[in-house]
Specification:
D-Amino Acid Oxidase, Chain A, domain 2; binds flavin-adenine dinucleotide; 2 domains; FAD/NAD(P)-binding domain; six-stranded mixed sheet; 8 helices; disordered C terminus
């Protein structure tokens, strides 16, 4: 944490939200050359919401080729940001498991990975168990092994984006709520905040679960925050930090090593207003139910701690990146769903390209089929 910073009077960019969306956008804008920018966050420090409380899995495996393309591009950037190899992205690899009754859980994602030349292998259960003995406890028939996936030090990555952004002219102002837009002559001229006004021609709404409301109080964008729980177990003999994380599409479950135990999620998804959600006993019951079915020998594990946080989705679950359709000067970087940490660097780069009126040449236009990409 650093001492409070004063709100400047004017900046080229005002970014609302110091999570992965805002921090990576500031980093990417700064890479293009020095500029003046301010990143505002309503909290006393950054990373208080989804960006500091997520499962930290860098996952390339997705049925949507756009998400995989963004994740893969981002992986390259994150590796390039490392001062020592593995410091930000620990290359554990990732496994997606499926029962024989749901081979489609793996087939579509396998095709997407192969089409983008990302290393991956489909394995039958005996082969997967021989390679990864900890899988003995889990019920599955097929595995998709993706060695380029890994675990991110989320606080280090968020801090790295912000540090690099500061070096190019951005200032982080915490404990500062963006309350509304200043509109003059039909376009954005600044932001009203809890610390006073700041003038700018470009406001970037990267406010996570609150996104789509700033300046659009009468007609918010269709973004929906949904709550998800994470649990950390007590010590377990076979939890090793070098093991890959594991994702089970059916019935929706994931886990990875965390200290001497496991971090687990029953992949619950409940609509929730923006904020820090309270935990709900129903999620613990769901965890117990799924764990008993998937790994009966682990059904009695103790839970050391748990928390809940919000993932924010657009209706088609693609990110919402682009200028506001009705407010000149307002730009959106939101709807980062459950992939916002993994894809952050590419999302920032995409936003910076679009803010500079450039078409992102690094992104294959095929996944950008009209109506599917939320490029507003
Ligand atoms: C349980 C869980 C597990 C997840 N696991 C993964 C994972 O393994 N891998 C992955 O890639 N992704 C994961 N995600 C998703 C990822 O965490 C999010 O997509 C990402 O953090 C969203 O970043 P953001 O910057 O949009 O939002 P946030 O992190 O919520 O940041 C928004 C910021 O805006 C600030 N803000 C809001 N309104 C205002 C205002 N008016 N004025 C000033 N500041 C404001 C907030 O304080 C906040 O800091 C997970 C999410 C959850 C909830």
């Amino acid at each position: 944490m650093r001492p409070p910073t004063q709100l400047p009077a004017r900046a080229d960019y005002v970014i609302v939200g110091a999570g992965f969306a805002g921090a990576a956008t500031a980093w990417a804008l700064g890479r293009r050359g020095p500029c003046t920018g301010v990143i505002l966050d309503r909290e006393l420090t950054f990373g208080v919401h989804a960006s500091g409380r997520n499962a930290a899995m860098s996952r390339l495996t997705d049925e949507d080729p756009l998400i995989t393309a963004l994740a893969w591009r981002s992986t390259a950037h994150i590796r390039a940001l490392e001062e020592t190899p593995g410091e930000l992205l620990r290359p554990t690899g990732g496994l997606t498991l499926a029962p024989a009754s749901h081979p489609e859980d793996l087939e579509a994602a396998f095709a997407v990975l192969r089409a983008q030349n990302i290393l991956c292998e489909l394995l039958r259960a005996p082969v997967a168990r021989a390679r990864f003995p900890f899988l003995d406890a889990w019920t599955f028939d097929l595995a998709l092994w993706s060695p380029e996936e890994g675990i991110v030090d989320i606080h280090a990555l968020l801090s790295r984006y912000l540090k690099l952004a500061r070096q190019t002219g951005f200032t982080l102002v915490t404990n500062c709520l963006a309350e509304g837009l200043i509109i003059e002559d039909g376009r954005v001229a600044g932001v009203r905040t809890s610390q006073g006004e700041i003038r700018t021609d470009t406001v970037i709404d990267a406010s996570g679960a609150w996104a789509g409301q700033l300046g659009r109080e009468a007609q918010p964008l269709p973004l929906e925050p949904r709550r998800r729980h994470l649990f950390v177990s007590g010590p377990l003999d076979h939890a090793r930090s070098t093991d890959p994380f594991v994702w089970l599409q059916s019935p929706g479950f994931y886990f990875r090593a965390e200290g001497d135990g496991l971090l687990l999620s029953p992949c619950d998804e409940t609509a929730n207003p923006p904020g820090l959600p309270a935990t709900d006993a129903a999620a613990t019951e769901l965890l117990a139910e799924k764990l008993s079915a998937l790994a009966p020998t682990l059904a009695d594990i103790s839970i050391r701690r748990q928390w809940a946080c919000l993932r924010t989705f657009t209706p088609d679950r693609r990110p919402l990146i682009g200028p506001d359709p009705t407010h000149p000067g307002l730009f959106h970087v939101s709807g980062l769903g459950g992939f916002g940490m993994t894809t952050s660097a590419a999302i920032g780069e995409l936003a910076a390209d679009l803010l500079h009126n450039q078409t992102p040449t690094w992104l294959d236009p095929k996944p950008l089929a009209p109506g599917r990409f939320q490029l507003i």
